[in-house]
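hey m, so remember when u said the tokens were messed up on ur end? i reran from scratch. heres the input so u can diff it against urs
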Amino acid sequence: MFESLVAGVRTLSADDLGIGVEAKAQTTHASSAPDAPEVPADHPRVVEIMRLAKIFGGVILSGPPGTSKSFYAAAAADHMTDRDTERYRFVQFHASYQYEDFMLGFAPTTTGFTLKPGPFLELVERGKDRPDDELHVLVIDELSRADVGRVFGEALTYVERTKRKLPFRIANGQEIFVPTNFVIIATMNPFDRGVDEVDAAFQRRFAKVTMDPEQDVLEAILLQNDMDEALRRRLLAWFGRINGYAQNNPAAAVGHAYFSAASDEESLQDVWDYQLKYLVERAFRRDENRRADLETAWRHVLEGPARRQPAEPVEDESDEASAAAGETDTQ
């Protein structure tokens, strides 16, 4: 439209400027939200991940949903690779993910099949001829959702820091080694099925960082979203309450990221109606009293003391009768 009004005008979209959803998604898997904050390299969590990755060769970020595990994994990977997409891969494990997807397998073509390296082999082969300080990072989301022994195969032994550069053969007989500049950053929910197997496989090989719901992080999010102070305080109190229950009932843990877009009562109501309500019902399905208590407390978060009006006083029937009788007498 503007081009027809003014000659020589070129319109630019948010993605053209590098701030739109697609542009964000191409540069980082931390968040595709256009207004998601950039995480600086000196952020304490990023510094911790990068330090441990260099020591152990891999880091597992473990915590319930909504605790920013994927966000910080991707942010650390961005800084470790200087945002070089050739040195960075992101994969998500799931029940059907296999060795053929991760390491080496046949992929269909229009005429048959071709041998295709997976993200692990791609990065290992790319990094082996590069300097040790030129890190190549593989981010694995939902590590515990797949059978890690089956997915990694023989490579599971050689991702250990002390066995880097030792040659081994993969399924097709090719001899490879895992270079010292290869790093894995993985995320997982500690309450998923299969976590015990993951812990047994990686507890000696990688560092493990626990990421819990953080009230300070939530408060910073709400301040950035310009949430009213009174509403913010009530929400923080509810957040602390349900996560206090999570000490004995891990399914009740609510991460701070659930509220990343919350700014007022309306947006909080959406969070409750379409996410938190189901989490509370599932976590307390055998504890009706506590579930009801949390639901009542949530209503108080939204209503606040000013909006909870006292019930209308009921007039005494005897007073009404007296008034009616008085009117009759005067007539």
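this time it looks ok to me. The radius of gyration is 28 Å. if urs says something different then somethings off w ur setup not the seq
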